[in-house]
Amino acid sequence: GKSEDKEWVPVTKLGRLVKDMKIKTLEEIYLYSLPIKESEIIDFFLGSGLKDEVLKIMPVQKQTRAGQRTRFKAFVAIGDYNGHVGLGVKCSKEVATAIRGAIILAKLSIVPVRRGYWGNKIGKP
């Protein structure tokens, strides 16, 4: 996104806590299972390590009286390669806007991945 040049002004209580360094890690947010409503919170914690990948862009059509109305649906997966992953889906008239929106939604839906295998608590986050 274009978050580097403009200053982030938090609008949620959680955002303010993050900005004031009251919350140190993403794990603290997950611990109290708070909803993350601002994508900047994720940028704040995982900023440099985040990689996003556009999985698929598909045209979807709505039938109207005048004909079809085509919009593009973008699927974006995002994650740092260290136990956090998110998926975003966004529909928009242009491909670029769909992708940009999907990236933001993917950031909001980031969840921690527990490492290890069945019946074993190895690698707790």
From TrEMBL:
It comes from the Eukaryota. One of its GO terms (cellular component) is cytosolic small ribosomal subunit. Residues 50-113 form the S5 DRBM domain. One of its GO terms (molecular function) is structural constituent of ribosome. Signal peptide: none annotated. SUPFAM superfamilies: dsRNA-binding domain-like. InterPro entries: Ribosomal_uS5, Ribosomal_uS5_euk/arc, Ribosomal_uS5_N, Ribosomal_uS5_N_CS. Gene3D superfamilies: 3.30.160.20. Keywords: Ribonucleoprotein, Ribosomal protein. GO terms for biological process: translation. This is Small ribosomal subunit protein uS5. It comes from Scophthalmus maximus (Turbot).
